[in-house]
Amino acid sequence: MILVLNGPNLRRLGTREPDVYGAETFDDLAELCRTTGEKLGEQVEVRQTDDEAELVGWLHEAADRRLPVVLNPAAFTHYSYAVRDAIAQRTAPLVEVHISNPAAREEFRHTSVVAAVATGTIAGFGLQSYVLALHAIAEMNSEK
Ligand code: DQA
């Protein structure tokens, strides 16, 4: 089982700044992740929250259950040391993903406080960032 965790504002995909994040909705994203999981033979559970405490709780759950995670921390990426410290407790791979390429955007998005504790980062490929991350995790699982 792979958890796909999403931070603030991501449930508004489709209506939120479509020029940056595309026209597809959060439900489309969830479906894409689940069908990718089916192809890879992995069960995928997709969640979203606007609440930092809830996201920290899910990361604790992933650590305790030794579950790999695909995480789009959204704006928390840039300033949440609480999310960073929760990721540092991970017991399985965690891939940081972004739909857009934060390095090509405003200055404040150039800093990720979580990147150093993630297994790796995939950014800038639209919703395909999640597909690539799921493939990376499936690949790491098969190497075990
Ligand atoms: C994002 C990029 C972040 O800078 C932003 O705050 C988001 C979405 C992305 O997926 O491109 O909410 O994580």
> What level of helicity do the residues show?
25-40%
CATH topology term: Rossmann fold
Please state roughly what percent of the residues sit in beta strands, choosing from under 5%, 5-15%, 15-25%, 25-35%, 35-45% or over 45%: 15-25%
Mean pLDDT across the residues is 96
Structural class label: alpha/beta
Q: How would you spell out the order of helices and strands?
A: EHHEHEHEEH
Let me know the number of strands. Answer: 5
What is the 3D form? globular
* Termini gap: 15 Å
Tell me the domain tally.
1
What's the gyration radius in Å? 14 Å
Ligands in the model, by name, code or SMILES, are: 1,3,4-trihydroxy-5-OXO-cyclohexanecarboxylic acid
Strand order of the largest sheet: 2-1-3-4-5
Poorly predicted sequence stretches spanning 5 or more consecutive residues: none
Number of helices: 5
CATH superfamily: Dehydroquinase, class II
CATH architecture: 3-Layer(aba) Sandwich
- CATH top level assignment: Alpha Beta
Q: Describe the biggest sheet?
A: 5 strands, parallel
Explained architecture:
The chain has 144 residues and is of the alpha/beta class. The protein has a single domain (2-142), classed as 3-Layer(aba) Sandwich (Rossmann fold). The protein has helices at 18-21, 26-40, 52-65, 81-87, 128-142, and strands spanning 2-6, 44-48, 69-72, 94-98, 120-123. A five-stranded parallel beta sheet has the order 2-1-3-4-5, sandwiched between helices. Helix 3 runs parallel beside helix 4 (81-87). The longest helix is centred in the first third of the chain and has 15 residues, at 26-40. The site of 1,3,4-trihydroxy-5-OXO-cyclohexanecarboxylic acid has 10 residues, from loops.
